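As promised in the previous annual report, we have extended the structural survey to additional targets. Below is the entry for Branched-chain amino acid ABC transporter permease.
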Amino acid sequence: MQDTLQTLVGGLSLGAVYALVAMGFSLVYRTMGLVNFAHADIAMIGAYAASTFYLTAKLPFAAAMVTAIVVTGVIGLVIERVLRPLENKDFDLMLIGTIGFGIVLQAVAVLIWGTTGRAVPSPLHAAPLDILGIRVRTYDLLVMAVTAVAVVALALFLSRTKRGAAMQAVAMDHEAATAVGIDVGRSNALAFAIGAGLAALAGGLVGPMLYVDASLGGALGIKGFAAAMLGGFGSVQGAVVGGIAIGVLDSYAAGHFQGYSVLVTFLVFTVAIMVRPTGIFGERTVSRA
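The corresponding structure token record, generated without further manual editing, is:
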């Protein structure tokens, strides 16, 4: 029983990271109807940037994370600005454009940081907590707490601010939003910037949990994408539920099936999607581009 609960805690912390990645995917898709295939590589850049500011520039971990979020937010704005002329004109070319940006980001990462990865030490040096016989790393609790704050902050932004309301309006009907004077381009840019920031947050948080290298984006991206699909693509709350589900499933599979854990995880995911193609929250497919 203790082993099961121990695995559950590890799965929740990884699931929190996947949820952040999935939220970024879903936010852009909900606003523009576009899957940003560069999103995973933005998370990788965020992980490298956060580790560089933390280990090399010697910034406090929180400051390094904020700086990395700003850097990737700018990257998100650049991607959206380059793709903006294609909006509502060539959806396929927009998709190809995001793939191209992902390749460029991978090349930039190799040029700046090389092919050798880096291990990031935990910013918390406190001993693991013993809760009912279960050893819980303090860093796992930090990851879950930061993710919870990010989820609440995003929900409040979307529901309580004018910019958030504008993004919601664009998500529902961008033509109607344009008709009432909402700047759709600005809403799309903001969605890209916030999505990129969430990716950087995920990459920075996962650094002390996994090894930071150029392949990190692929690992985070495929799990985050699966989480977004499982929760219901375009649903922010679905992204959170999907991320936690994928994280827990991945953790249990790693503990029981070891080398076949990825296969087992995606077999279960495939069955779940076959049973409910629209995901847990059943968001309908939208098309903005």
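The first strand starts at residue 129 and ends at 131. The two ends are 49 Å apart (CA to CA). These points will be discussed at the next consortium meeting with the crystallography subgroup.
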